[in-house]
Every structure is written in C-alpha cells, then in structure tokens.
Specification:
Strand order of the largest sheet: 2-1-10-9
Number of domains: 2
Distance between the termini: 14 Å
Number of strands: 15
Radius of gyration: 18 Å
Strand content: 25-35%
Number of helices: 4
Mean pLDDT: 96
Low-confidence stretches: none
Amino acid sequence: MPYLSQIAIYPIKSLGPMFVNQARIVEKGALEHDREFALFDEDGKYVNAKRTGRFNYLSSVIDWKDGTVTLHNRENNETVTFHLHQERAGVEKWLSTFFQQSVTLKQDSGGGYPDDKKATGPTVIGAATLEEVSSWYPGSTAQEMWIRFRANLEISDAPPFWDDHLYREAESYVPFRIGNVLLHGTNPCQRCVVPTRDMETGDPVTEFSQIFRAKREETLPDWAEKSRFNHYYRLAVNTQAPDTEVGKIIRVGDLVELI
C-alpha cells in the first residue's frame, strides 16, 4: 500500500528543503514552517528563484529552537548566522548585498507564502515518479529531481505517476488520507523556470523543458485526467486541507489511501 516516505518543508521561499519526520497542518492547510519566510523587493514583489538564479548559490538552515538562521554563500564560501528576530536588520542587509538589491524578509507563521493561492496544502509526488523523471536525463538522480521540483510529500510503494490519481476535472477534487489527515488533491502543478535551471550556476537549460514536455506526454498514464493538461510541463499534485485538519500531524510512514 502506498505510504508517506519523505516530508520536506522549505522554511524560506525559494531556498532549500529541511527534511522532517512529521509536520503539523496549520492555518490555510499548509505544513508548519513551509514557506514561512519570503523575500520581497522595494515594490513588495517576491524576490524568488523565478526571478533570479542567484538562489542556486545560497543555502540556509533554520534552528527553530534558537530562532537563528545560518546562510551560506557558495560563491565565496561565506557563512553567517543571525537571530531571525533580534537581528532581522542584519539578515536583510546581508541578503540585500547578496542579491544586489534591497530586500525585506517577511514571516507568516499561519500558512506561509504559497504560489497557488487556491491550493495551499502540501504538494505531493511519487518516489517512482521521481525515478522515472530522472531517467529522462542521463546522470541525474531521483533526489536531484526532488530538489528541482520542490515537493513536500513523497509517496512510496506506488507505480510511476500514481500521484496522477489525485486530481480530476477542473473545479473538482480527489479526497485522500495520509494517516489520519484528510487532503483534497486539486490539480497537477504547473511548473516554472526553476526546475530547468542548472543546479550549479542557476542558468536556464532550455533542453530540460523540451525533454520534459515530450516525455511527460509520452508517459502520461491512462488514469491521468487529460483535460488538466493544456501543456505537459506539469508534475506533482497541489492539494487543499479542510479546516477540520488544522492541528493534525502527518508522519513519515503513514499509509496513503484514496477515498
């Protein structure tokens, strides 16, 4: 039976994942601490990996107990640590220098800063799906694809693209449970430029998208709702969590069941 094999949260939007054994559903249906922080420019717009490949040079680790963030600039091998609240001005000054523009770090602990405002729950992808996609690119791995496509929940013990069971026609949803948490699968996630970027330099690789679209169409399973594919640059499933699920815990090892 399919089960939850990995949970990843992304504490700072567009930066790397933190793998956890369990996560709580918070307001808006998100996982606690996922995209809890985000960077904004002087016009109030996101500074994110869609806009700049410089995120590929930057990594972060948050210590929730101590309230600190450690930032590492791979470009010059600089590592700094700041208190997220007491030294917020220092964090913003350092990041502004790194991104070569004035940035502000904001926090929303009630659901974070999701891309899809209608489907604010965790994104779901299959482990075998990641294996299959990695086979389209010689030398790549499933873990690399996880990082590229930035999903929250990985489902194992299921065939490739099993996650395409988790949506139907537009304006409908598929109910499913992970452990005792009810989620509604809503739509196959439309991807942006981020997965196509070279992981070392952040430069877009045009062939990545071309290969992906062709292979995704070729391997789309019979159970996928084809009306949701106006194009084939879609992978992983967006979800919603009903208000009844807020406060519940999702855990690695939980069984996954379609309702």
